[in-house]
Design a protein that fits this description.
Largest sheet: 6 strands, mixed
Shape: elongated
Strand content: 35-45%
Order of helices and strands: EEEHEEEH
Helix content: 10-25%
Distance between the termini: 25 Å
Number of domains: 1
Amino acid sequence: MKLFTTIKIGYSKGIYGCSGEYFITVFTYKKGLRSFKFKGLYGAEERVNAVMQKKGYKDFYNGVAYGKLSGEDKNFFWTENQAIDFINNGFDYERT
């Protein structure tokens, strides 16, 4: 069965409020589990999840606590568009 979950890891804050939200998507793969991290705003996780569902994956909820991220923590996340491109190109880790 093809399953996935997207977990909100944290957020960043600027002068005018939230400046980014940070997520990790964990999904089943041929040999077990894989994951990728991405960032976005205003429904990014819903848009990435929609692409996963379009690829035949079933979403399962996995709630966790999260907090504010700052500095170097934010550098390890793809953009929302990079996450969608990764999904659409068959989870090609060689391209990342």
